[in-house]
Amino acid sequence: MANKLIKASIGVISQDDRDYYGKKRLDMAGSLLATHFRQLFKTFTEVMQKILKKDIDSGAKEIDLKKAMKADIITRGLKTALATGNWGKDKNGEILKTGVAQVLNRLTFMSSISHLRRLNTPIAKTGKLAKPR
After folding, report:
1. Per-residue model confidence as pLDDT tens digits over 63-107
2. CA distance 9 to 80
3. Which phi and psi angles does 24 have, rounded to 5°?
4. Per-domain residue ranges for the chain?
5. What's the whole-model pTM score?
């Protein structure tokens, strides 16, 4: 970083534009879904482990795996995330990202295109920062 700064100051390379779209980070749908599924699957296995452990500790003669598998944890989690747009939770149960999934505005063709081209810039609401351009 320091090397790039010195080269830009003496004119060897040109300065970067922080507003250039090619340098923006994008969260693609596949990686977002994979991360959310991974979190839900971890919850699914923890719940299953808890139920099976309780059955074993109680001295049950037969263990019912179908009862222990709560498949609706993953289904409900994905449906909720897509319906509300609230994506993922951290260890404290706080929502990590909001507004990820939205209903596409299809009033007119131009409104649809405008909706598809919108960017969500992660600018903190607290603190003194440069205004977005």
Report:
1. 888 888 988 999 999 999 999 888 877 777 788 888 888 888 899
2. 50
3. -80, 145
4. 28-92
5. 0.69
Tokens representing residue 130 in the block: 């440069």
Q: Which residues contact 69 (CB under 8 A, 6 or more apart)?
A: 44, 48
At residue 27's C-alpha, the angle toward residues 123 and 132, to 5°, is 25
> What was the pLDDT predicted at 88?
79
Q: Which two tokens stand for residue 126?
A: 């607290």
Residue 19 in contact with residue 131, Cβ under 8 Å? Answer: no
In sign, the C-alpha dihedral spanning 116, 118, 122, 125 is negative
Q: Where do runs of H (alpha helix) occur along the chain?
A: 2-10, 29-57, 65-68, 72-84, 109-117
For 15-55, how does the pLDDT look when each residue is reduced to its tens digit (9 = 90+)? 888 777 777 777 788 988 998 999 999 999 999 999 999 98
